[in-house]
Design goal:
It contains 39 helices and ten strands. With about 900 residues, it is mainly α.
Amino acid sequence: MDGSNALYDKDELLGRDIRQLGRLLGDAIRSLHGEAVFESIEAVRQTSIGLRQRPSQEGRDALQAQLHALSPVDTKQLIRAFSYFSLLANIAEDQHHTRRSRAHLIAGTAPRNGSLTQALKNIVDDGHSDQLQEVLAEACISPVFTAHPTEVQRKSILNCQMAIARLLDERDRIQMTPEEEEANEEALARGIVTLWQTRLLRTTKLSVLDEVENGLSFFDRTILNTLPQLYGGMQDTLAKLDPAWQGRELPTFMRIGSWIGGDRDGNPFVTADVLRATLQRQSNVALSHYLTELHKLASQFSLAQALSGSSEQLRRLADEATDGSPHQVDEPYRRALHGMHAKLSATHALLTGAADDADSRSHYVSAQALRDDLDILHHSLLAHGAGALAKGRLRQLRRAVQVFGFSLAPIDLRQNSDVHERVVAELLAHARPGCDYLALDEAGRCAVLREEIASPRLLVSPYQAYSEDTAGELAIFAQLKKAHDTYGQDAICNYIISKAASLSDLLEVAVLFKEFGLLRRETATLAVNIIPLFETIEDLRAGPAIMEQAFSVPEYKQLLQSRGMRQEVMLGYSDSNKDGGYLTSGWELYKAEIELVKVFARHGVKLQLFHGRGGSVGRGGGPSYEAIMAQPTGTVQGRIRVTEQGEVITAKYANAEVGRRNLEVMVAATLKATLLGERQFQPEAAQLAAMEALSASAMQAYRSLVYETEGFDTYFWQSTVISEIAALNIGSRPTSRKAAGKIEDLRAIPWVLSWSQCRLMLPGWYGFGSAIAAFLAEDREPRLAMLRQMYQDWPFFHSLLSNMDMVLAKSDIAIASGYASLVTDVALRESIFGRIQAEHARTVDAVKQITGQRELQDHNPLLQRSIRNRFPYVDLLNHVQVELLRRYRDNNADADTRVGLHLSINGIAAGLRNSG
């Protein structure tokens, strides 16, 4: 077998890595804790594997007996062992994905989906090269990092994992001598010992700035280098495919955004001071990277004037440098870089708060000014035959400065519309005595708001004392304006309105912008995009009409002209799912997009959609390529923003090579959906009617269980780990909007995480089985044939079922029954779990019938293999968790039990990966 085929093997090398990592973990446990502890863990492991392979009540009873006999201390060690194994299995799987991607490149083949090279080839071969240039000039492709309490993993644990991953990667890339192989294994052993002795749990709750630091670590680790590489690789590929692209530089069409430090919806800890600190920390990461790169370039660019030559601009730039070695007087590139480094150091001190003021001549006033100096180097090298040097590190840095600027990542601000309503009401009460804004109907509110937008008078007075909440919100807007003055408008260019349900919700933000010079009445300019977020099923249905109203208001329409006649709309996947169930959420999102396209076209406004997709299918997640390709025709148009949440950020961007692959997939899908969109499937009227009927039935079944069944709240709180999740130190945001404990008030993220922990994954499938059964009750064969055709031809329907298939494969009714046994009311337990069990069976059967699979995930052997490798260990953690919940709730809440319970949550999340 040749090298490339060996690398491509789907099982052999992955199995090798998992076995080796598992063996080294066992060696570490044996060495650190003794043979008895190791044997105890191994005995339980063998029982769990046997139970997964041959499920039986006898096997479950044997496992329960083993677990029940363990002391709290031994239970904690068992959980740690299985949790760490899941982390190691994740490393091995990620490395195998990288190995297979490299094998494709070596063999000159394309992966099944998401190859950027193949997408560009298809576009050029179809004669769309010129159109591609036009699309890229207007394109905006942006993953947006968000901080949510699903990422239970500590940064220290991630660092350990990355050290192990580098050692595995080294074995694939280097032909080692026997001594080097031995050294590599010894280093792996040391890495695993370090991992084993590093805490899985945090001892304190994360602050917002802790979340900021966690998010920034992915820029240091991956994004700062990987994104410029993507641009360079894409530019080179296009130049090879079409000579017309020779010498062209791609416009900046992809940036990474962030909500971390700006998302205030339900998070009282995001203040103006936190926003200021976030901006400074982001700037520090960007500028520190540039300083490092300038230093490296200076060490490399030792070109002597007499031997290389240089442009007059370059020599002038070199002469401006005030320091430098006398030994470098004939090295203009090096002297220029030293001067740039000094100037950027002064900029760094100014922007990160280390200096209060600086002479404008001694620092860069903008990122473009730094880019201009770098361009001088670039053009000088090209003019003097040193194009190879221009294409290396310098090209990377030039692109990085263009993409990341001095602010690193645009921060989105988000707040709930109810808060804006209260703030505006308080301002109006002081500025317009007798105006009871909250008592006005929608028409009355809009009339008042339009008057204020047109008025030169300001509502905010420095002499007026405002409530604490209003003062806090006004401070945010003041900090937003200061951020623009300090870092430029790219630092914060989007303001998202949660729970947007009316035109007044948009106009309230416009009024607040005017107060701080972010809306200039006299020039009708808007410095920040106003973005409504339509979240619930009702909001999604009302969204197009709200935008119709907004575009009919002259003052608002005029503001859009200053934003290029472009309006962004955010669609909420998580809350719409929690509100109406998985199928209805997906269908209402699809319909809302179609209607928005029509509204925007009527008013001559360009649409940009922001998809609030979660990490899990239960929150709208799933593979990015399929999701983008499944968008309705005309909704992408080269512009798309997508949230990256929780543990998905780690899975996608902790490893640089995996990170680049995920970014390329997003670009490939966006360009294909835009330029090859005419190939997209157009559903027929009968298929649309079928989806409407299925959605109605599915929503009725879902809401009947979740919101209309008496006692369901009690069942949920007793049969899941929701209470224990609330006690974990895994995020700055509260798990619920209110303290009442109602499901309506619970955030979608802990809602989904709770169901995944008990292996029901209910938000990702419930209601579908009932909907299919009702739909097939009449004319079964013709209707089933139509559904099968929809699955084959319609990317939207195919994506829905593929994601549901994956969720069902990760669910386990037998394990879920153990959690149901924790419900103290026997009648309630049997009634609700019986309904869930029956619906699960109906849904599995429906998915198999439509997809034509004998078993779930027959079409996805990679996931089947993953389940086979890791689920015996995840199953065991579930069984332990049930045992610990029983002890904990029986008032045996000793420290070891409490820690063990929290460790089990961590371990199950790691094992299931995209579960919360």
